[in-house]
Amino acid sequence: MESWYYEDYVPGEGFRTMARTVTETDVVNFIALSGICEPLFIDQEYLRRETEFTGRLVPGLLTFSIGEGLFVQTGVLQGRALAFLGMDELRFLRPVYVGDTIHVRMETKEKRHTRREDRGIVVTRLVICNQREEEVISCTLTRMLRRRPAGD
Q1: Mean pLDDT on 113-119
Q2: pLDDT tens-digit series, residues 50-65
Q3: Please, how many CA atoms are within 13 Å of residue 52, restricted to the half-sphere of its CB?
Q4: Structural domains in the chain, sorted by start
Q5: CA neighbor of 71 nearest in space, from 57, 58, 81
Q6: What is the DSSP secondary-structure string of the chain?
């Protein structure tokens, strides 16, 4: 996809990203980097004995990070994003397991001008889904983006 200016975002419209399978290596690297050494993510016997989960769990923040990466990889933000302003309504809806394949659906919720004419604010809803189209994470993200230069 080409980069999108502020004007290219249309409330109610969006797209779907490519998909990516979450691997054991992803989980191991994320836990080592983040320090999130919870038994849920590092102790399979604990999972088997103490929970109803049926496989190797993926930390929700890793799932979100991969989903945000899939969104960025579309290229729509390339050279247009000025700031990530915030995230609201982050919901972890279902577990993700190693071997699940996730993709993101993005929908533009709203946009507004700023005092500066070269930028605007765009609010999008991202929904991360698994291979069965089940929603696993949803959130609302607010970004500051460049506006289309005059004459473009």
Answers
A1: 95
A2: 999 989 999 999 999 9
A3: 2
A4: 6-146 (3.10.129.10)
A5: 81
A6: -----GGG--TT-EEE---EE--HHHHHHHHHHH----HHHH-HHHHHHH----S-BPPHHHHHHHHHHHHHHTSTTTTTEEEEEEEEEEEE-S--BTT-EEEEEEEEEEEEE-SSTTEEEEEEEEEEE-TT--EEEEEEEEEEEEPPPTT-
What does pTM read for this prediction? 0.94
Amino acid (1-letter code) at residue 51: T
pLDDT for 152 beyond 80: no
Task: Give the separation between CA 150 and CA 44, rounded to whole angstroms.
Answer: 58
Cα 39 from Cα 152, distance rounded (Å):
54
- Owner of token pair 């995230």: 87
At 63-92, the pLDDT tens digits run 999 999 999 999 999 999 999 999 999 999
